Structure formats: structure tokens, C-alpha cells
Amino acid sequence: MAGVLTAGRKETVHDLAKFIDKGVQVKLTGGRQGTLKGYDQLLNLVLDEAIEFLRDPDDPLKTTDQTRRLGLIICRGPAVMLVSPTDGTDEIANPFMQPDGA
């Protein structure tokens, strides 16, 4: 279900208005984060002060701590897999991670 019908008006499930001018992390083909400046109903995002986490050259599925500054970017909606706030989130240990040599 893409939205909820309320008094003849269709509202989208993803209400990003509360994240305008706040930091968000966006999961695309590469990890990027920045300050959300705008969005539309297709989930095209405008991020300011965006940074990209670079991929590990030995394992392209992993990102590294190295970053590059992108500035103002537009992320196309179909490429957006995840949008999460950067404030109030903490990274936790993966409980399914196997110890080395197991």
C-alpha cells in the first residue's frame, strides 16, 4: 500500500518533512549522507553538504572510513534504498557475525 487515503487526499507513508535541514544517511550503491534540503513524491532527494563513504578496493561490498565531499547532490528516487536520521542512531555489534576461524 503506497499511501493512506485521508479525507479525499492521498498521503505518502514516507513523511520526510520532519528531516528537512537535518542530517540523514541515504543508502544507495554507495553510502552517502548529508543534510536533507528537499524531496518529492518519487523520493528524489536533495542533500547538501553530502559526503560519500568510499568502497574497499579489495571488497566492493564494504565501505571504508575514507570519505569524499560531494557538496549539493540530487539522489534519484529509484536508487534510494534507505533513509535514516544521523542523530539518535548508534551502531551496534552484529549479533550474527562469526568470529574469525569459526
UniProtKB/TrEMBL annotation:
<dbReference type="InterPro" id="IPR017132">
    <property type="entry name" value="Lsm7"/>
</dbReference>
<dbReference type="GO" id="GO:0005688">
    <property type="term" value="C:U6 snRNP"/>
</dbReference>
<dbReference type="InterPro" id="IPR001163">
    <property type="entry name" value="Sm_dom_euk/arc"/>
</dbReference>
<protein>
    <submittedName>
        <fullName>U6 snRNA-associated Sm-like protein</fullName>
    </submittedName>
</protein>
<comment type="similarity">
    <text>Belongs to the snRNP Sm proteins family.</text>
</comment>
<keyword id="KW-0539">Nucleus</keyword>
<dbReference type="GO" id="GO:0071013">
    <property type="term" value="C:catalytic step 2 spliceosome"/>
</dbReference>
<dbReference type="GO" id="GO:0000956">
    <property type="term" value="P:nuclear-transcribed mRNA catabolic process"/>
</dbReference>
<dbReference type="GO" id="GO:0000398">
    <property type="term" value="P:mRNA splicing, via spliceosome"/>
</dbReference>
<dbReference type="InterPro" id="IPR044641">
    <property type="entry name" value="Lsm7/SmG-like"/>
</dbReference>
<dbReference type="GO" id="GO:0003723">
    <property type="term" value="F:RNA binding"/>
</dbReference>
<dbReference type="GO" id="GO:1990726">
    <property type="term" value="C:Lsm1-7-Pat1 complex"/>
</dbReference>
<keyword id="KW-0687">Ribonucleoprotein</keyword>
<keyword id="KW-0694">RNA-binding</keyword>
<dbReference type="GO" id="GO:0005689">
    <property type="term" value="C:U12-type spliceosomal complex"/>
</dbReference>
<feature type="domain" description="Sm">
    <location>
        <begin position="14"/>
        <end position="85"/>
    </location>
</feature>
<keyword id="KW-0507">mRNA processing</keyword>
<dbReference type="InterPro" id="IPR010920">
    <property type="entry name" value="LSM_dom_sf"/>
</dbReference>
<keyword id="KW-0747">Spliceosome</keyword>
<dbReference type="GO" id="GO:0097526">
    <property type="term" value="C:spliceosomal tri-snRNP complex"/>
</dbReference>
<dbReference type="Pfam" id="PF01423">
    <property type="entry name" value="LSM"/>
</dbReference>
<keyword id="KW-0508">mRNA splicing</keyword>
<dbReference type="GO" id="GO:0071004">
    <property type="term" value="C:U2-type prespliceosome"/>
</dbReference>
